[in-house]
Every structure is written in C-alpha cells, then in structure tokens.
Amino acid sequence: xxxxxxxxxxxxxxxxxxxxxxxxxxxxxxxxxxxxxxxxxxxxxxxxxxxxxxxxxxxxxxxxxxxxxxxxxxxxxxxxxxxxxxxxxxxxxxxxxxxxxxxxxxxxxxxxxxxxxxxxxxxxxxxxxxxxxxxxxxxxxxxxxxxxxxxxxxxxxxxxxxxxxxxxxxxxxxxxxxxxxxxxxxxxxxxxxxxxxxxxxxxxxxxxxxxxxxxxxxxxxxxxxxxxxxxxxxxxxxxxxxxxxxxxxxxxxxxxxxxxxxxxxxxxxxxxxxxxxxxxxxxxxxxxxxxxxxxxxxxxxxxxxxxxxxxxxxxxxxxxxxxxxxxxxxxxxxxxxxxxxxxxxxxxxxxxxxxxxxxxxxxxxxxxxxxxxxxxxxxxxxxxxxxxxxxxxxxxxxxxxxxxxxxxxxxxxxxxxxxxxxxxxxxxx
Length: 429
Prior knowledge:
Blueprint: H1 6-18, H2 36-40, H3 62-65, E1 68-85, E2 94-97, E3 103-115, E4 118-131, E5 160-177, E6 180-196, E7 217-233, E8 236-243, E9 247-248, H4 259-262, E10 269-276, E11 282-291, H5 297-300, E12 322-332, E13 337-346, E14 367-376, E15 381-398, E16 411-428
Antiparallel strand pairs: 1-2, 1-3, 1-16, 3-4, 4-5, 5-6, 6-7, 7-8, 7-9, 8-10, 10-11, 11-12, 12-13, 13-14, 14-15, 15-16
C-alpha cells in the first residue's frame, strides 16, 4: 500500500482526511465546477478570471487576477437509489437508498503577482469521487452461492464504495501580451478507496483476497494542466485548457477488483470556452468539456469483458467518454452585488449493460441548474455563494445475475439526483 510522506500528509490533513471530498459528482465523477463563483455559473469558467481557482479551471486566468486568496466550502448532497425487479419468483428483488447523503467539499486558492506579467499561485481542490453506502440483509442469496442474509449484490453486510480525490495544483501564469496569457499547473494527486460488500465478486477475480472489505487504500500520482486565455475584442474573451491523464499508483489492496492490478488513473480532459459581454454589467459564458473516461481501464472497460477482475483488460465500470456543455450568466446588479445563474448538460456515461457494476457508483445525472452571487463586504473582501440542483435520472439494464440464472435475474435500475450549497470568502490586495 502506497502512503504519502508524513510531512505531506500532515500538510493536507484538513483537506484530504478531516473533510470528506466529493461523492458521485455531476460530470461523471468530476465536479460540475471548481470554485464557488464557477459553480454559480454551472462550471462555465474557462474564459473567465474570477478568483484563485485557476489551477482547477484555466491556469492562464491566474495571470489576470493579481494578488488573491480564496477559500470555500461546498455542502454536497447526492441521493442514490438502486433496485432490482423481475427476478425469478422475486427471489433477488430489492430496493434500497444510499445512507451517505451529505459531504463537505473544501476548496482553496492563492495567487501572487511576481512581476507585471507573471504570477505564482496554488489551487487545492477535491476533484470528485464516488461514495455509496447501502444497507445489507435484504436478500437470501444461498441459491447464488452467497449468504442467506445478503446485500443487493449478494455480499455480506453493507454495500458501497468510498473514493476520494484531492488535487494540489501549483500554478504559473504568464502574460505573453497585454490581453493574452498562458498558464501551467503541475497536478499532484492523492486518492483513497474502500469497497465493502462485494464478496460475490471474489469468484470472478484473479486475486480473490484483494477484492472487498480491506479498509482504505491510498495512491498518489501526477499530471499537468495547461491553458490559454485571451481577450479577442473588448467584449469577447476565449479560453482553452488541456489536462493530461494523471498517472496514479495502483490500489494494491484492491488489485483483484480494478483492472490492470488495481489501476485507477484520472482521465485526460480538455475544455474550450468563450465569455461575451454584450452590454455593460452582463457576461455570458459558454464552455465545452470532453472527459475521456475510456482511457482508464478500471473506469472505461465494459463490465462484460471476458477476463477476470483485476486482469489487464479486465472488467471495469464501462463508462463512456462524455461531452459536457455549460452555460453561465453573470450580472452586476449593483456596485456591491453580482448575481449568477447557469445550466449544464453532460452525457450519461453509464450504459444499460453495465448497470450491475454501477450500483456501486450510479453517476447517471445529466442536467444541472445553478444560482450564485458575490457580495463585496469591502473594497478588498467579498463573500460568494452558489446553489446547484441536478435533476433525477435513471438507467435500467439486465442484472448480472442473469449469468447465474439465465433469463431469471431480472432488471436493475440505478438513479440519482443532487443538491449542493456552498460559500466562499475571497480577498485581494
């Protein structure tokens, strides 16, 4: 099991350990936005320089925000439900809600101008994650080789996963011209994972002792985000970013579950954005993001792959790449008050064939709606808030129990909706 160095673990304890990170976020397992201001605009931020969260959004934006400190907390509430219907004689039918329904997601950004054209800063944020916790004891699974008192996947006790991801992004912003900048953020990642209640999966694994109920395992890794931001006209700003796949160490304790012996890298993704000021005080921002989940075997491999769990090319969650569109509006209602609203639409990454595996991670929401504000409490300090609602969505598919009882395992449905509410404090000097 790989551990962070002691000094690093202590430095990040508040962010990574004391406070749970995101769970089943809006764009797959990515957050719908990074920074409270961006969250108020549905995450549309690639062509905006609003705060010191550029390491998570567009590193080039840090060149335009000057000296800033931003710190916030988002209370995130996902509601997940899974059910199985139509099994032979109702033998495997069940319905249960996840008991994990509230998470606190911190964020922090700092930026300092080192010269008129160069800034150095750091952004610390929870990338996203997955967290479910379903009560057990609904089923008698003795006919399927499981215990007589079992959870929905015929394992012992409670069923669910906990995946938390923290990213630290030191950031350099550089104005290459008065209205144009580039930026780079080395990405330093930490993640931890735990799964419980999938004892039946040990029968499908190349390493049965490394599948379930082994506590938290940890991994660290690295990647990079680069970005460009430029004002094309007084009214139009454009931005673009690219983030490489983050190469993470394996979850060695779960090498019998995840494909490629415990591999769980963070997928590469890129964004394009434009921000337009059609009239004084009004800004309209539009972002497009591509997240390439298929490039990470443990996430993108179909669950139907004919290989043991944990093997190279073994079964994964079957997530497709997703296209994400974000539209945000910002209006200066008064010298002190700015209000925001937004709408985001993402593809559902989960296909019907992979529903059984995704009982653990039902990231199926597509549409989310946001509101936000910033209020200046002085010439140098402000408070921002944001609210998000992602409406309910579901996916239904044939249960993997049909492999044990052909045509008799029924169908499973996973569903989710989400709400979040966040506040942040920002200051500049």
